[in-house]
Amino acid sequence: MATTSSEKTLKDLFVHALKDIYYAENAILKALPKVISHVKHAELKKGLTEHLHETEGHVKRLADVFGELGAKPASVRCEAIEGILKEGDEVISEFAASPAGDAGIIFACQAVEHYEINRYGTLLAWAKELKMAPVAKLLKATLDEEYKADDKLTKLAESGENREGIVKTAASAAA
Ligand code: FE
Ligand code: ZN
Ligand code: FE
């Protein structure tokens, strides 16, 4: 029998959010190769390719979290990541061939990383609250990689490539 909403616990919410991020990580894993294929800047391509491999690890780690809970990995469709990925796809279609292409890809990828930092940050806080130390350890490992991926994107964006792309686009629009 399904529990009514008044009987739901923080643990139930944790499991719901876990299924949500499991869906999201699989969707990101599927979307990244196409994104990477459009990157021009070598370091950005390398960074995103590394993060693609880390993302495979994120999916595996989540499966381990389900295992810790004595459950099989399961998904619930995440409308948030669907929206973020759809927007990224639109930006790539519109800008990938332009001098602002890499700036658009960083823009789209940082939206994904911030979403993940948000979700793993919350899940980690709840895992601690629920006294699930082994689960918290797994979530923290992924959260750290998401922060690093985001920092790398910020550094690349500020290194000139991104600004240059934006400036070039603005200049050609003004011409
Ligand atoms: Fe991830
Ligand atoms: Zn969601
Ligand atoms: Fe990520």
Properties at a glance:
175 residues, mainly alpha, Ferritin, 6 helices, elongated, binds fe (iii) ion
In round numbers, the mean pLDDT is 92
Bound compounds: fe (iii) ion, zinc ion
Number of strands: 0
What portion of residues belong to β-strands? Answer: under 5%
Total count of helical runs of at least 4 residues: 6
Low-confidence stretches: none
Oligomeric form of this entry? single chain
The main sheet comes to: none
H/E element sequence: HHHHHH
**CATH homology superfamily name:** Ferritin, core subunit, four-helix bundle
Shape: elongated
CATH architecture: Up-down Bundle
User: How many structural units, i.e. domains?
Assistant: 1
First-to-last CA distance: 66 Å
Helical content band = over 70%
CATH topology: Ferritin
Radius of gyration: 18 Å
